[in-house]
Amino acid sequence: MPPIPWLFNTIFKIPQRSGLHQVDVKSEFHLNKDDQLLKVPAGLYFPDIGENWKIELNGIVIREEWYPIKEDSLSVNRSLKGLVVPINNGILKPGKNEIKIQFLGEADSNPFKPNDHFGFYHTKNFRLSSLEGIYNSTSEYFDIFLFGIYFIFGFYHVLFFVTRKQDIYYLYFGLFSLLSSVYFYLTTYHLYNTYINYPGGPDTEFFFRGEISALIPIVPIFMLFAKDFFYQKDGKFWMIRIFCGLSFVSLLANWLLPFEYVLPNLLVYQVLLLLMLLYVILFSINSIRQRKPDSVKLAIGIGICGIFGLWDTLDAMTKIVGFHYPFFKISFSVFILVIISLLVSRYVSLYKQSQALNQEISKQRDAFYRFVPSEFISILDRESPVEIKIGDSKEKTMSVFFADLRGYTTVSEKLSPDENIKYLNRYFSAFEDIIFKNAGFVDKYIGDAIMALFSDHSERAEKDNFNSADNALQSAIDMVRHVHSLNDGIGIGADLGIGVNTGPLILGTVGSERRIDTTVVGDTVNLSSRVQSLSGFYKTKILVTHHTFLRLNLLSEIRAREIDTVIVKGKTQPVILYEIFEADPPEMADQKDQTKSKLSEGITLYKAGQFKSAFSIFKELYKQNPSDNIVRLYAKRTKLVLNQLPSGDWDGIFRLHRK
Question: Which Gene3D superfamilies match (predicted)?
Answer without folding.
Answer: Nucleotide cyclase (3.30.70.1230)
